[in-house]
Task: inverse folding
């Protein structure tokens, strides 16, 4: 694609990177075939190629973003299916991230939008604030029909019925092992710590059982993805910088990997090197990204023992951030099969479930359609269990499926001597079913 940025414009590192990405696009349109929003809405401007044109026009002309451009960029899930499909290697993620930051700096959203985004950015990345908000949402549920904004209704409806007690395993500490094969830091996350403490507990049990010493570093927190996807660079970089400092302190004491069990966070941490490329933290950010691994990648190195064949059918949901963001497609299925589960895959497994960070709260209508489509394809397999590697997908699918959904590590932990995952004994949807708001 030809671009017309001036030499002066290209002195800005963000614009220069956008220029390189835009020039790689040959407008072939292959990406439209796998874009969930294009499939649902059928509008070229809701396809990757359409969005690329909108971003190009906005950046080249240094335009104040208009409502139309913002609407179509906001509707993008950042699922990155387009990156998997693109034959030209267009790095859509960096392009849309830059466009979102540009919009955040140059566009004045309606007051209700600004208020909503402000609240989300100040609650979701902080586990204790998020817990309080979940309690508030539970109390607000009986009054939901009086709330006119569908996004606020979606937020209340997504709150789980049961809020787990705080897990002391998430506090800074070291889980020692007798016969140490590796030393890893576990990123305990933010929203996950409020919504489901079983996942980190199972991860720690599993890793230590397989010989990995697990450190919960002091000072780590949200990876920054939630605010990064809202274009709030100052906030996302501030939380990411704290993580880099916390992890580098542990790396200096010897660390083989930073283990991440929320694939949405993993995609972002693996991109810290790019996010901080022009800052004082560039070298350390690159070091962090180089050893950031999804938990399934670490488990593949740890030689998990084979489990007996079980009469249990697991439908594996591939989170977009894992299959497209990190290009990890086989590890979770290989591990589940090795543990003795029968692994099934749904039709259209490349398509997003509609969770996508805060997308299900900001765009409840499109998100609801994607969720229902995903649940349909998963339940068509008649599985005993659904497994996923990302808390966002688990909440989204769990809100509409009768089949219990748990994290892949919970099943692997169970198969290698851990307790039966608590999520398996749950009846019906984990959260009340969210009506599709059309
Ligand atoms: S598939 Fe790649 S090169 Fe083709 S239009 Fe999409 S982004 Fe551009
Ligand atoms: S990230 Fe997903 S929703 Fe956004 S343009 Fe690419 S395929 Fe479409």
Result:
């Amino acid at each position: 694609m030809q671009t017309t940025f001036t030499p002066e414009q290209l002195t800005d590192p963000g614009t220069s990177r956008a220029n390189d990405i835009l020039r790689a696009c040959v407008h072939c349109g292959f990406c439209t075939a796998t874009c969930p929003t294009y499939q649902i809405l059928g509008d070229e401007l809701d396809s990757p190629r359409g969005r690329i044109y909108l971003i190009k026009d906005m950046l080249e002309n240094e335009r104040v973003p208009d409502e139309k451009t913002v609407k179509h960029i906001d509707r993008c899930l950042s699922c990155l299916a387009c990156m998997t499909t693109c034959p030209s290697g267009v790095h859509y993620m960096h392009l849309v991230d830059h466009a979102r930051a540009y919009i955040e700096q140059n566009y004045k959203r309606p007051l209700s939008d600004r208020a909503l985004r402000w609240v989300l950015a100040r609650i979701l990345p902080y586990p204790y604030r998020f817990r309080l908000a979940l309690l508030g949402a539970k109390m607000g549920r009986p009054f939901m029909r009086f709330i006119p904004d569908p996004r606020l209704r979606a937020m209340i409806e997504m709150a789980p019925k049961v809020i787990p007690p705080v897990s002391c395993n998430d506090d800074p500490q070291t889980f020692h092992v007798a016969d140490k094969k590796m030393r890893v830091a576990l990123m305990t996350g933010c929203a996950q710590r409020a919504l489901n403490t079983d996942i980190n507990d199972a991860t720690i049990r599993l890793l230590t059982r397989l010989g990995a010493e697990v450190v919960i570093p002091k000072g780590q927190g949200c990876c920054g993805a939630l605010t990064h996807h809202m274009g709030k660079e100052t906030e996302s970089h501030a939380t990411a910088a704290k993580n880099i400092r916390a992890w580098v302190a542990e790396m200096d004491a010897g660390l083989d990997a930073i283990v991440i069990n929320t694939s949405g966070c993993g995609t972002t941490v693996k991109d810290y090197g790019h996010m901080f490329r022009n800052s004082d933290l560039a070298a350390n950010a690159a070091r962090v990204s180089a050893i950031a691994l999804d938990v399934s990648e670490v488990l593949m190195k740890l030689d998990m023992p084979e489990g007996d064949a079980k009469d249990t059918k697991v439908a594996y949901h591939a989170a977009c951030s894992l299959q497209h963001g990190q290009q990890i497609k086989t590890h979770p299925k290989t591990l589940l099969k090795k543990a003795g589960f029968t692994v099934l895959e749904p039709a259209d497994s490349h398509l997003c479930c509609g969770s996508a960070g805060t997308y299900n709260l900001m765009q409840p209508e499109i998100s609801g359609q994607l969720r229902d489509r995903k649940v349909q394809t998963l339940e068509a397999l008649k599985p005993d269990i659904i497994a996923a590697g990302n808390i966002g997908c688990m909440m989204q699918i769990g809100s509409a499926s009768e089949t219990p959904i748990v994290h892949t590590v919970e099943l692997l932990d169970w198969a290698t001597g851990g307790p039966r995952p608590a999520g398996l004994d749950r009846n019906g949807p984990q959260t009340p079913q969210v009506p599709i708001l059309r």
In short: Strands lie at 173-175, 182-187, 212-216, 257-260, 292-294, 313-316, 342-344, 385-388, 405-407. The pocket of iron/sulfur cluster (ligand 2) is lined by residues 35-37, 48, 51, 76-82, 92 (CB under 6 Å). Confidence is low (pLDDT under 50) at residues 431-438.
